Amino acid sequence: MVSKSLVSVVDDDESVRESLPDLLREFGFAVQAFSSAEEFLASDWMDRTDCLVLDVV
Asked: Can you identify the CATH homologous superfamily of domain 6-54?
């Protein structure tokens, strides 16, 4: 069995945190969303994340 790649989404915009994970899950990814970099860095997900999507603007 192949495990799903984990994508972590970090964005302060709630609508992005809700919609982007839904889209990524449709493509077969496991997704975890965070509202800030601090929240992500304090989580247990950091070491398991394969791809990190950040809100840079």
From this structure: Response regulator (3.40.50.2300)
Sequence ranges of the domains in the chain: 6-54
CA 15 to chain centre: 13
Backbone angles phi, psi at 28, to 5 degrees: 95, 10
Rounded to 5 degrees, what angle do the CA atoms 1, 33, 28 make?
30
Mean pLDDT along residues 3-32: 96
Distances (CA, A) of 4 to 10, 21, 56: 19, 14, 26
pTM score, whole prediction: 0.88
